[in-house]
Amino acid sequence: MMIELKDIKKDYHLGLETVHALRSINLNIDENEYVAIMGPSGSGKSTLMNLLGCLDTATEGTYCLNGSDVSDMNDDNLAEIRNREIGFVFQNFNLLPRASALHNVELPLIYNGTPSSQRHGLAAEALTKVGLGDRMQHRPNELSGGQRQRVAVARALVNNPSIILADEPTGNLDTRTGDEIMDLFETLHDGGNTIILVTHEEYIAEHSDRIIRLRDGHIERDEAR
After folding, report:
1. How high is the pLDDT of residue 14?
2. Would you say residue 225 has pLDDT above 90?
3. Which of 178, 102, 160, 167 is nearest to 135 (CA)?
4. Which among 17, 78, 178, 218 would be 20 to 30 A from 130, CA to CA?
5. pLDDT grade, residue 1 (50/70/90)?
């Protein structure tokens, strides 16, 4: 089992008020699954994404990722797990504006200490994989929205992570370009990647093999497709 969540709870304290963002979540995700997480605003899907991505830790419960219990890890260990196991794709691309596509994709390799002699080739390979082999030296402002998101996908892939975690990856794209990005995710899934997609768009979720629907911090439905 790649991901195992057991009795996960997440509370936030806002002044004197306690917000129960997640309430006893139990969830298993296997290798090479393609899962969409859906829910209305306030349902807990962003909180769940942050926990799955090791960007936050639970108030209660256990989270095992590839056999490692990450529930009680400190920030340094969580950062190491994130860099090794998880590739992130965000709605806003999160690219360095003055850096080339190639350098943007190299960043995770710099963080994990990959020698400079290897970084260039690995980043170039990732960009070629997403169809941007001829755009490596372009800066983000010289690329279309769809191309910028492809750079972000290449950056997510460059460490060969266990999981690609995508948060509203088509949110800033027009429908046609969004469809192209979803086609790319399908290709990556067919190639063996595990994909977890957070979205509020039903037609985006329908690209997945399984839809997990949250409401008020609970899993309301878990639907195989």
Report:
1. 87
2. no
3. 102
4. 78
5. confident
